[in-house]
Design brief:
- The complex is a heterodimer of chains A (about 325) and B (about 240).
- Chain A contains one helix and 28 strands.
- Chain A is mainly beta and about 325 residues long.
- A four-stranded antiparallel β-sheet of chain A has the order 1-28-27-26, with no helix packed on it. In chain A, strands 2-3-4-5 form a four-stranded antiparallel β-sheet, with no helix packed on it. In chain A, strands 6-7-8-9 form a four-stranded antiparallel β-sheet, with no helix packed on it.
- Chain B is an alpha/beta fold and about 240 residues long.
- In chain B, about 10% of the residues lie in helices and about 25% in strands.
- Chain B is built from three helices and twelve strands; from the N terminus they run ββααββββββαββββ.
- In chain B, strands 3, 6, 10, 11 and 12 form a five-stranded mixed β-sheet that branches. A five-stranded mixed β-sheet of chain B has the order 5-4-7-8-9, with no helix packed on it.
- Chain B is globular.
- The chains are: A mainly beta (about 325), B alpha/beta (about 240).
- The interface between A and B is medium-sized, with 27 and 24 residues.
Chain lengths: ~325, ~240
């Protein structure tokens, strides 16, 4: 009965019809979120309410699909397709919730979950270990000299992988194929030329190069086959936090963080071939690049209203 | 029969202690055979008295060392930078902040001091800002032959994205796993004077052990703070 009432309320709150998947929209949440997460494809929103529940809300409809009672959560990450939400707790438990059903899987970690992100829809990276969320089994451990693996990128064809960690190294791998693909990753090259931690990594659309960036604001472009430096691009800012390629274009979306607050402060589009860069006007927004190369900015206009708009860069 | 020893003490020495090959006076055939072998080898000049162990390791073997628990690891954070300058003094003249002296020793799990351990240390300045372009408040130190290290800095500011004041450590020594950890201060206002109860207020403090007591000394115009932080590395 409670569910019926809740859904009725939500229907009223989100009245106005389901927005188009490719359109801008505004929705109003029935509570004030204290933390927000948005999936890479922009189809799922996770918000933590003051009651420390996580509400999973489908976008752009705004329909609440699941409410999770999670205690001591310290990390959360959506799978790229938005079908899974992984939550790590301070007592080193991991729970992966389906956003489309009541399914969930959980397991215990040996270490505190310092870093967590999805590499693929079914591969979850926690500290050094890649986990298969379908069977909750660890399938591969990536090496660093010390510290965690901060970021792992796969080439568009899945035939190359790059990992960057706290030890400032960029390691290039050739993933295997078949069922044992994860275990068969072969380290092909290691680049030691960076001084700061690697926080952003992205392959170019053709998979021939890897862009690596850290807090000094420089992008180092490596040849994905030889591991050698092709060029260094100054982006005109400091504090690179992440890099994403934008569709099949030579542009990379670079997010910067404020070293003082550790919060995202700006985004720029950087042409990896020419080194030109353009600022994106996305202040106070969460920015996502879809697999087709569309850039969405999600901003909170008030405590409860979230708006999405497409960002079209000006050449 | 008595023999006088060089140290002027007297000790009864029976004939049984003198090697007499074939005397039939061997109450321990194994020992006597070994003694005979040693004597022969010495006569022939084919043996030198040497130990495969170094003087240092022999000294260690005779010194009782309490085993120590490895220092809990902690987050590396995103601000590590390779190649920090070798120095003991991180604060510059006129830098704001309460002067801080950190000292301690680097140990192995077996309780031995680890000489020549390398410590990389980085923190924010008193205003809570990391230097990502330069090397302010970043240093590398080498522990002395007794495993001791010390440095002079300031109490770091509250970095806004974190709850507590902290200093980052990366410690490495041959034969041991690199230790990534952080030092926290019991005087941090976040703990409201009770770090035992309140250390969980920073979700990244996974062990109370990392919150260290702070000793404040000196006159009001020259006040300083001292912290002792020993580090124990896990063997490879």
């Amino acid at each position: 009965m409670r569910r019926v009432i809740l859904y009725s309320l939500l229907v009223l709150v989100f009245a106005g019809g389901a927005p188009d998947n490719n359109a801008s929209f505004e929705i109003t949440l029935p509570f004030t979120p204290i933390y927000k997460m948005i999936s890479a494809q922009g189809n799922m929103l996770g918000v933590v309410s003051k009651k420390i529940n996580i509400h999973l809300i489908a976008l752009p409809s705004g329909r609440e699909v699941r409410k999770l009672d999670v205690h001591n959560a310290i990390k959360g990450a959506f799978s790229p397709d938005g079908k899974w939400l992984a939550v790590a707790t301070r007592d080193s438990n991991v729970v992966v919730y389906s956003t489309t059903s009541n399914a969930q899987k959980s397991w215990k970690l040996k270490d505190y979950p310092w870093t967590m992100s999805f590499l693929r829809n079914d591969w979850l990276l926690i500290n050094h270990t890649l986990w298969n969320v379908n069977n909750a089994k660890s399938v591969m451990t990536l090496k660093t000299d010390f510290g965690e693996v901060n970021v792992v990128a796969l080439s568009p064809d899945g035939k190359k992988a790059a990992a960057g960690g706290g030890d400032t190294r960029v390691r290039l791998y050739t993933p295997g194929s078949g069922k044992r693909s994860l275990q068969e990753w072969k380290l092909t090259h290691q680049y030691n030329g960076l001084k700061l931690e690697v926080l952003g990594l992205a392959f170019t659309p053709d998979g021939s190069r890897v862009a690596a960036g850290g807090l000094d604001g420089r992008i180092t472009l490596l040849d994905a086959t030889t591991g050698k430096v092709v060029k260094t691009v100054q982006t005109g800012m400091t504090g690179i936090a992440s890099i994403d390629h934008v569709g099949k274009s030579p542009w990379m979306l670079v997010r910067y963080i404020n070293a003082r607050t550790n919060k995202q402060k700006a985004c720029r589009l950087v042409n990896i071939n020419t080194g030109k860069s353009h600022p994106l006007r996305v202040e106070n927004s969460i920015v996502r690049v879809t697999s087709s190369g569309k850039i969405w900015a999600y901003s909170f206009k008030s405590d409860t209203m979230i708006a999405r708009r497409e960002v079209i860069p000006k050449e | 029969m008595k023999h006088k020893n060089n140290d002027n003490s007297t000790e009864p020495v029976t004939d049984e202690r003198i090697i007499r090959p074939g005397s039939g006076n061997e109450d321990s055939p194994l020992i006597m055979k070994r003694r005979r072998f040693l004597a022969r080898a010495a006569e022939l000049g084919v043996m030198i008295i040497a130990s495969p162990l170094s003087i240092h390791s022999i000294a260690r073997a005779f010194t009782f060392q309490a085993h120590r628990r490895p220092t809990p690891s902690n987050d590396l954070g995103p601000f590590y930078k390779r190649g920090a300058p070798h120095r003991k003094v991180l604060r510059a003249k006129g830098d704001p902040g309460l002067p801080l002296k950190i000292s301690g020793k680097v140990y192995s799990e077996k309780g031995y001091e680890l000489p020549d351990a390398t410590l990389e240390i980085w923190q924010t300045n008193a205003g809570g800002i990391y230097d990502t372009l330069g090397d302010r408040y970043r240093a590398q130190l080498i522990a002395n032959p007794n495993g001791k290290y010390e440095l002079e800095s300031v109490i770091p500011g509250h970095y806004p994205a974190r709850v507590c004041q902290h200093v980052h450590y990366l410690v490495r020594a041959d034969g041991h796993k690199p230790l990534v950890t952080q030092l926290y201060f019991a005087t941090d206002p976040v703990f409201e004077g009770d770090p035992d109860k309140n250390f969980h207020r920073d979700p990244l403090i996974t062990s109370r052990e990392l919150v260290r007591p702070v000793t404040i000394t000196g006159e009001p115009d020259s006040i300083t703070s001292d912290v002792n932080f020993n580090l124990v590395l896990e063997a490879l």
